[in-house]
Automatic annotation (TrEMBL):
<dbReference type="Pfam" id="PF00291">
    <property type="entry name" value="PALP"/>
</dbReference>
<keyword id="KW-0663">Pyridoxal phosphate</keyword>
<protein>
    <submittedName>
        <fullName>Pyridoxal-phosphate dependent enzyme</fullName>
    </submittedName>
</protein>
<dbReference type="InterPro" id="IPR001926">
    <property type="entry name" value="TrpB-like_PALP"/>
</dbReference>
<feature type="domain" description="Tryptophan synthase beta chain-like PALP">
    <location>
        <begin position="17"/>
        <end position="304"/>
    </location>
</feature>
<dbReference type="InterPro" id="IPR036052">
    <property type="entry name" value="TrpB-like_PALP_sf"/>
</dbReference>
Amino acid sequence: MNLPLAADIEKAYEQIKPFVHQTPVLTCKSINEICGAELFFKCENLQKVGAFKYRGATNAVLSLSDEQKKHGVATHSSGNHAAALALAAKINGVKAHIVMPENAPEIKKKAVAGYGAQITFCQPTLAARESTLEEVIRQTGAVMVHPYNQWEVICGQGTASLELLQDNKDLDIIMTPVGGGGLLSGTATYVKEVFPQLKVIAGEPANADDAYQSFRKGVFQPVVNPDTIADGLRTSLGSLTFEIIKKKVDDIYLVSEESIIQAMRLIWERMKLIVEPSSAVPLAAVLENQALFKNQKIGIVITGGNVDLQNLPF
């Protein structure tokens, strides 16, 4: 399998730079004291559409040929990837076709519609999402943009850690959450080549531990009935992301639902930042394993801030 290199992530960075926010890296003295470590938060919750997904979607749209752009892009997603692709397409004058399950959060439906995408609703099953998307692509000739298991998307997501390391070169560890693995594999691709001394570690909910199981066994394990508050991490790894993670990631830590809520609340209260549960998973891993992370300098990618404010966990 042909895997991306750090050079591909650097190229993606130059390509998307005019279109994405260079998000801030923030620190918090009180969280450092609680953890016994020095944490640097890369705030992708302040990215356009409120999530790192905008980087990968933008890189995918900008990588299309003129002929492909005429037919537009298509994907199935109930969340941040749908909004990211819809906006990236709109800004670049490309039509976006999004298949969304009928039970997707209203706020997400509104966001995607607001960005001018053509939405097709389907039953809330993976089979229905995939078959509906196939039909949309057949009718429109649109190019599929996968939420994570795609070269251009992985390279775009890796640019968040590239930016983080521009001003913070002396970190010991970089951490991300892991769901489909686009962010983690993009991060590991860049970091392990350019800063080989850095450890790349992911946090994952214990209630959706497919990446942990796949990583430990070296054989792909699909996710089964993921029951976690971290809705962005309920997906299985892809063939491409798993290959990269297997080769380049140092470790994956599992965290409890209680720790995710505690970490999310800590970021809200101490940093005054709105983050979604998935974003809090790496901090939860540090809180649960303080002895292992003691006195380390840790970069954490805060992945997004799209929260249903009517339905907070605390």
